[in-house]
Amino acid sequence: MAGAAFDEMNGSGSGTDGVRPPYEALSAWLKQQPPEFFNTRRSQAELFFRRIGITFAVYGENETSERLIPFDIIPRLLTKAEWSFLERGLKQRVAALNAFLKDIYGPQECIRAGIIPADLVYRNPHYRLEVKDIPIPHDIYVHVAGIDIVRVGPNEFYVLEDNARTPSGVSYMLENREVMMRLFPELFARHHVAPVENYPDALLATLRSVAPESVARDPVVALLTPGRYNSAFYEHSFLADKLGVELVEASDLFVKDERVYMRTTQGPTRVDVIYRRIDDDFLDPLVFRPDSILGVPGIMGAYRAGNVTLANAVGTGISDDKAVYTYMPEIVRFFTGEDAILKNVPTWRCREPEALSHVLAHLSELVVKEVNGSGGYGMLVGPHASKRELDEFTRKLKHNPENFIAQPTLSLSTCPTFVASGVAPRHVDLRPFVLSGADEIRIVPGGLTRVALKEGSLVVNSSQGGGTKDTWVLDG
């Protein structure tokens, strides 16, 4: 999969093939603008983000705890046909994820059928015996999924990761669109762009649809946050405001008679659905970590009794595991009876001796990831690694091979990006957000495009210096 990256505006390789049809209007517009135009617009965009306070926290850094995620003012374009293909694949994959989670917390037929090794489930730190065989409202575990997609060719898309615990980034998708519409109305006039601003309505409809079946009134929804010191707190407050629901912390909730209540100025109000942005470990100090001050004592009792829906469900973290990811083609086939529309990136499971030998022999050519890693941390990009880093990962792999998977160095597609030197191609990925309700699976067209701003870099994570772009699905 290595080689010249696919340029989404100009075509393959060096960009000498001419402009691809979906980018023709954008390319012409870019050529019409004077250099200072982009600098001015970028400054205006940064000012907008600073005023609304859209930041993320960087843990473990002394110089600052809050940063703006760099925003690139040149949009990424996808055709309606490209999006339709992605949408079909995303719906199939998330349906399979939900069926897989229902199964491993229930009859475990996929384990008995040999689809996935039993030890990979039972020994996984995110597999929660506490919810084994308890009824989950409407059998939906992953209500909000963020599926990371990479493109390597004109019609080649791969799933890089599944994010099913508390996927973040949707606030940036929405704010990116708003700032683009403010700064570039003339560019929107040249394109028919599918809207994304209905995401909050779609999310609220999804959450309300999965309320416990015993709820006879309009379901009450709340968003549970760890608090203002969490890296994604801006997104929590943003979404609660957009949804029109209460943003609550643990101290705002209490449990009585296996029901969850919210403290309000009018007295206690029963809560039916909690969109939680707290990891399992901190959710209930009576069940998980007893030292947690972020969770609600007794909430798991209400959950087991079927009196509250937690979105996403407890135990979904196992499907984020990169070792489990390697079995997704088999999982999709087992639970849907179809081949996966969206393929996995070819992956070596270092827990298997033959794969480990291959990885150790080709370490300088591969990307190595921790199975429970995220945010671009704990990974090795072989072609860009120093000898010291390669030696360090060799030791790690030999000491604990089960903790790692390896993949080829992908030639991620590139999009035009405004950088210090002007407009230049930079590597991108895409995180669409998939909403699974009791009535349907909803996906707004597009998602969060993340961009590696450093020339040649393949790491798009904001925590590693990446930025974001607005993603336009052309509706014509």
Automatic annotation (TrEMBL):
Residues 75-452 form the Circularly permuted ATP-grasp type domain. It holds the Pfam family CP_ATPgrasp_2. InterPro entries: ATP-dep_Glu-Cys_Ligase-2, CP_ATPgrasp_2, UCP005522. PANTHER family: BLR5612 PROTEIN (PTHR34595), SLL1039 PROTEIN (PTHR34595:SF7). This is Circularly permuted type 2 ATP-grasp protein. It comes from Enterovirga aerilata.
